[in-house]
């Protein structure tokens, strides 16, 4: 036992210090929760994902300046009656727009005066079969989801009072009753925010219950099952106010999605760290009568691996700060802080609670030394119990018996799954993440069936004509994927700036529509060049200062470009940082290389298998474009956790026994705890798959699969097989010599 490890262990779990440690945590959680705002109170769910330098954001700024009325965001009220809208229904529509014009609902800015249109003009707004009408209601762009929900809620009340029943509760396929749905950017934002808000409570309850049940099944001890949950609870009591305070100071931005996934990560990874210590403590209690000595030895033996594992995850998650995309950045600090605090709790609070409760933590299956068992049996007048059987350790025997076979099988399995990844299709369509019966998705489906789907989110093409005649409208209308081009609008402060609204004849949120954004820009630039606008400014102004493209499709195009840039940057940073940490910890270049490579292969395998399940099993046509980077960061960081814990055991044993025996015992010694930890971590991520949000379902599924592959393939088989086959070279450039065994790599 090292002096440093002994001092640290005695500091957190000594006779008096264990109570001080517990009181410090109680005071910290209580005071911080009382004095600082909770993280949930500081959520901002409509924070921008793009910075002001992105083309779509610049277009929005120009639109807000030159076309202030058109810069507001629309709620599209989709009205439908299967048998056809009657004159009485159209009269209700007139009453609605008249009421909204005279008495706007909260945060409403304008509404088209349909009540002032001639009857024939209003009929011209209907779908071809006369069953559907779309009423756009514009709202303040600065209003957040809660305010927009308040405004649309009042709008729904007004329409319900006019119609005499709730049309928003009617089926959209109703033949004889008017049905209504709110969609468009406002409806989508409200539904997206509502999904994450509703998911918080169910996600927390589901995660707690799952972890509790798994701990009870694995350890069969109610006290032990509660210990990690108590530790997570105290950690959250510190994390939440710290994040809330940082958000209130404007240092970070937090949203519902980040907090939801942070909760899962906290329970999953936090429980894992607790189990690493608890399993070592239980093992030592079977050979050491003094619980204090056993706990000190457990802390000394596992604290390094736990600290290194936690630091690996913290550093990997902090790499997301290098991203430009707002959603990625918003994950970095909450997740990193959560793992950091949880790691500290597992090394301080958990040992203190174990020191206080002692062997009773494992009741009713209390671990005792053979001598203690004999004495206990004698006091009860029973025969001495038989010596417990040695664990079978079949994984250790297989991997040390046939390392080449194990390596080939693992490579074929993981490589085969990874080979599926080129088939994966991606989407950036937020609506595809919603349940099919969600209001905004139903409204969009109706628009797509009865009108052009591009009406949901037109693209806005803005050009600076420099006062010259530019024939852009005809060029845009001639494009095969454009359905409607609006009349040109002249800028309010600069009449040389002209805007056109372009409706696609396809889903404006689709990849196909996004791919047309560069062509729209090219067409606009060519029109300006032919009119002599760009040539007159040659060498002075670039086309980017004369053409702007805004709207949801352009924004998603920028989202994709920014996300791809972040993926190319963040992945190498994560790999580099984790490699550096492993190199410092293991002092082996070779081991660092193959440990990192194995988790990368595991990630691609999880992505491939996840696609097969999500696509063929769940029927998803594509996965959300952000999932690969999210999954990579989590799986590479968390996968290295298990590698570090197991390889640390092998490294320690290698100092006193041959490598082959060290691998066999290391795999067996860490097998049970890593399997338990992997099942719990995978289970917590799988809870995400129960939510009605496809992006979380897909992320949870792929991440859970990756954790299971690490737990049951990479950790017990692939990494030990590579270590054994490399022999002493696995330690290079370390000087550790083999003990009584020839180099296995030369067999």
- The number of helical runs is 24
How many strands, what sense, and barrel or not for the largest sheet? 5 strands, antiparallel
Structural shape: elongated
This entry's quaternary arrangement is single chain
Radius of gyration, in Å, reads 31 Å
Structural class: alpha+beta
Termini Cα gap: 36 Å
Low-pLDDT residue spans = 536-541, 743-747
Strand content: 5-15%
According to DSSP, the number of beta strands is: 11
Q: Which percent range fits the helix content?
A: 55-70%
Mean pLDDT: 86
Which descriptors apply to this entry?
747 residues, five-stranded antiparallel β-sheet, 24 helices
Descriptive overview:
- The protein has 24 helices and 11 strands.
- It is α+β, with helices and mostly antiparallel strands.
- Strands 6, 7, 8, 9 and 10 form a 5-stranded antiparallel beta sheet that branches. A 4-stranded antiparallel beta sheet has the order 2-3-1-4. It has a two-stranded parallel ribbon with strand order 5-11.
- Helix 1 crosses helix 2 (17-35) and helix 9 (256-285) runs antiparallel to helix 23.
- It starts with a helix and ends in a 21-residue tail after the last helix.
- Mean pLDDT is 86; it is low at 536-541 and 743-747.
């Amino acid at each position: 036992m090292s002096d440093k490890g002994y001092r640290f262990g005695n500091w957190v779990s000594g006779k008096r210090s264990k109570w001080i440690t517990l009181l410090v945590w109680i005071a910290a959680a209580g005071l911080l929760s009382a004095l600082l705002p909770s993280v949930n109170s500081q959520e901002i769910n409509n924070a921008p994902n793009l910075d002001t330098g992105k083309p779509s954001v610049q277009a929005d700024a120009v639109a807000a300046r030159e076309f202030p009325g058109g810069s507001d965001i629309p709620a599209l009220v989709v009205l439908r009656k299967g048998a056809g809208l009657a004159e009485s229904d159209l009269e209700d529509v007139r009453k609605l727009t008249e009421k909204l014009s005279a008495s706007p609902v909260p945060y409403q800015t304008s509404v088209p005066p349909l009540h002032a249109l001639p009857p024939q003009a209003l009929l011209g707004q209907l779908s071809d079969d006369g069953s559907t009408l779309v009423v756009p209601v514009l709202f303040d762009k600065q209003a957040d989801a809660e305010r927009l929900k308040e405004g649309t809620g009042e709008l729904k009340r007004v329409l319900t009072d006019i119609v005499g029943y709730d049309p928003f509760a009617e089926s959209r396929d109703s033949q004889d009753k008017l049905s209504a749905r709110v969609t468009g950017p406002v409806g989508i934002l409200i539904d997206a925010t509502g999904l994450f808000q509703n998911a918080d409570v169910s996600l927390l309850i589901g995660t707690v219950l799952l972890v509790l049940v798994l701990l009870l099944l694995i350890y069969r001890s109610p006290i032990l099952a509660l210990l990690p949950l108590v530790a997570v609870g105290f950690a959250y009591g510190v994390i939440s106010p710290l994040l809330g305070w940082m958000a209130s100071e404007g240092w970070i931005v937090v949203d519902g999605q980040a907090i939801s996934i942070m909760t899962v990560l906290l329970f999953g990874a936090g429980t894992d760290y607790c189990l690493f210590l608890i399993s070592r403590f239980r093992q030592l209690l079977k050979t050491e009568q003094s619980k204090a000595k056993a706990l000190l030895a457990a802390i000394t033996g596992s604290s390094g691996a736990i600290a290194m594992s936690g630091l690996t995850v913290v550093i990997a998650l902090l790499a997301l700060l290098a991203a430009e995309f707002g959603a990625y950045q918003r994950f970095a600090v909450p997740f990193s802080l959560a793992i950091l605090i949880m790691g500290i709790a597992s090394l301080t609070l958990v040992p203190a609670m174990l020191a206080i409760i002692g062997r009773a933590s494992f009741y009713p299956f209390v671990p005792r030394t053979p001598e203690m068992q004999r004495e206990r049996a004698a006091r009860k007048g029973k025969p001495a119990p038989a010596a417990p059987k040695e664990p079978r350790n079949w994984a250790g025997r297989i991997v040390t018996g046939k390392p080449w076979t194990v390596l080939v099988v693992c490579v074929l399995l993981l490589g085969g799954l990874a080979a599926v990844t080129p088939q994966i299709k991606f989407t950036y369509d937020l609506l595809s993440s919603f349940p099919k019966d969600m209001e905004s998705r139903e409204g969009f489906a109706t628009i797509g069936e009865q009108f052009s789907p591009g009406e949901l989110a037109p693209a806005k093409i803005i050009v600076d004509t420099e006062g010259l005649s530019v024939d852009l409208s005809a060029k845009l209308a001639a494009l095969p994927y454009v359905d409607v081009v609006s009349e040109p609008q002249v800028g309010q402060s600069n009449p040389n700036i002209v805007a056109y609204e372009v409706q696609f004849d396809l889903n404006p949120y689709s990849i196909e529509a996004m791919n047309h954004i560069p062509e729209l820009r090219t067409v606009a630039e060519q029109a300006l060049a032919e009119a002599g606008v760009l040539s007159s400014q040659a060498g002075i102004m670039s086309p980017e200062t004369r053409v702007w493209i805004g709207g949801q499709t352009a924004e998603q195009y920028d989202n994709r470009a920014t996300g791809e840039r972040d993926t190319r940057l963040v992945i190498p940073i994560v790999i580099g940082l984790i490699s550096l940490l492993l190199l410092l910890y293991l002092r082996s270049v070779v081991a660092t290389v193959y440990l990192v490579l194995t988790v990368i292969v595991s990630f691609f395998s999880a992505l491939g298998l996840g696609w097969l399940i999500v696509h063929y099993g769940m029927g998803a046509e594509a996965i959300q474009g952000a999932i690969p980077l999210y999954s990579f960061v989590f799986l590479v960081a968390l996968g290295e956790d298990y590698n570090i814990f197991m390889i640390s055991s092998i490294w320690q044993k290698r100092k006193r026994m041959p490598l082959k025996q060290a691998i066999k015992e290391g795999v067996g010694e860490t097998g049970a705890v890593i399997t338990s930890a992997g099942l719990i971590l995978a289970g917590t991520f799988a809870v995400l798959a129960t939510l009605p949000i496809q992006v979380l379902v897909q992320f949870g599924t792929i991440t859970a699969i990756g954790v299971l592959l690490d737990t049951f393939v990479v950790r017990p088989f692939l990494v030990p097989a590579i270590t054994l086959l490399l022999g002493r070279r696995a330690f290079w450039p370390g000087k550790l010599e083999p003990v009584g065994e020839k180099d296995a790599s030369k067999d």
